[in-house]
Recover the amino acids of this structure.
């Protein structure tokens, strides 16, 4: 997908000179309706607002391709890499209480990481949590060529997080920690496991206690129950039988065991929007404060002078000030976009599913059009 921040910047400039006759709540709705009609998405949830006011809430489609169950506000979507801001918020809460440190090498907590080496080089130190959250730890990247074994550690949902991270620890690093940006789902698994070891709690327990519970995120979890039916799965089209088959972690057999810390969280647009509201308001939602303003400032600031990725967010910085945080996500047939404007308090969330591998026609990757429409709707919402 084209970088979401680029779309947002272009759309904001365009809309500043555009006619004000366009209704605020039509831009994103029209885009999603057309994508559904054209068969490029299976389902979607969207929510756009400003401050504590929701200005648009929308749900369309069915939970499965060709399915009979309609998506509603309570339908859970796998949000892919939009899991990373949630995960980093949990970690920052542990940093705030000094259970974890951003600057201490992680072998203090997990001695296994005291024996790392760089591919084609020699031994090296363990990365810090700051380097892990900003994708500068040196761990292998799914955006570069992974081995089959490396892919298994972050895609075999029958593994436990402990087994996943034990495997990741045995893999050579791409580069010395702190020297190179390489987007890494493996790194976020390590961050989650370090948090587990440091606290003696599972990452799911930490998520529920530190974010979901306080913010009243009632449909946000790494582990939907086996009896849960209201989940949007998307699908992969079997070209031989032309029948859709589901592709989402919660359908793992015999059992979903791996919380892919930066990639397999389930949520609703309603829940994600509440998290976005807290993000826009320096970590506060009503009377609930999930982190102090000082910690929030670190969480939403650029830790390195180059690049655009901070601690779990892509950052749009102007005059050395972060004006916007965002993330996109993609796992199996699930897609997601989350944007928070820190200057005017607007936020936008879209979770959606697609049919993968559709023969002929478009590639069924409508992310750029959705991000354009989301940016336009948010810009209009900021004027309300």
């Amino acid at each position: 997908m084209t970088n979401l921040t680029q779309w947002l910047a272009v759309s904001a400039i365009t809309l500043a000179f555009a006619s004000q006759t366009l209704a605020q709540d039509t831009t994103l709705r029209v885009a999603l309706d057309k994508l559904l009609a054209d068969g490029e998405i299976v389902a979607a949830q969207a929510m756009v607002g400003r401050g504590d006011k929701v200005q648009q809430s929308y749900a369309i489609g069915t939970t499965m391709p060709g399915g009979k169950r309609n998506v509603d506000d309570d339908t859970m979507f796998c949000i892919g890499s939009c899991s990373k801001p949630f995960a980093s918020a949990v970690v920052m809460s542990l940093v705030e209480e000094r259970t974890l440190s951003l600057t201490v090498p992680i072998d203090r907590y997990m001695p296994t990481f005291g024996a790392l080496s760089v591919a084609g080089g020699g031994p090296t130190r363990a990365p810090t949590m700051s380097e892990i959250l900003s994708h500068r730890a040196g761990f292998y990247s799914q955006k570069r060529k992974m081995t089959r074994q490396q892919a298994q550690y972050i895609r075999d949902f029958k593994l436990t997080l402990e087994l996943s991270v034990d495997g990741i620890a045995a893999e050579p690093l791409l580069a010395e920690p702190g020297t190179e940006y390489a987007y890494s789902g493996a790194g976020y698994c390590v961050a989650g496991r370090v948090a587990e070891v440091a606290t003696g709690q599972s990452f799911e327990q930490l998520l529920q206690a530190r974010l979901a519970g306080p913010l009243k995120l009632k449909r946000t979890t790494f582990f939907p129950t086996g009896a849960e039916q209201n989940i949007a799965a998307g699908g992969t089209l079997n070209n031989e039988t032309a029948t859709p088959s589901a592709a989402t972690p919660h359908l793992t057999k015999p059992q979903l065991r791996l919380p892919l810390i930066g990639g397999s969280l389930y949520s609703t647009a309603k829940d994600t929007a509440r998290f976005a509201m807290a993000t826009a308001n320096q970590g506060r939602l009503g009377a609930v404060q999930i982190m102090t303003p000082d910690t929030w400032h670190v969480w939403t600031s650029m830790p390195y002078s180059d690049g655009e990725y901070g601690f779990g967010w892509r950052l749009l910085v102007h005059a050395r000030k972060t004006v916007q945080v965002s993330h996109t996500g993609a796992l199996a047939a699930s897609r997601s976009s989350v944007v928070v404007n820190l200057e005017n308090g607007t936020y936008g969330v879209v979770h959606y599913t697609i049919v993968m591998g559709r023969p002929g026609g478009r590639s069924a990757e409508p992310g750029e059009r959705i991000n354009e429409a989301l940016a336009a709707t948010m810009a209009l919402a900021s004027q309300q």
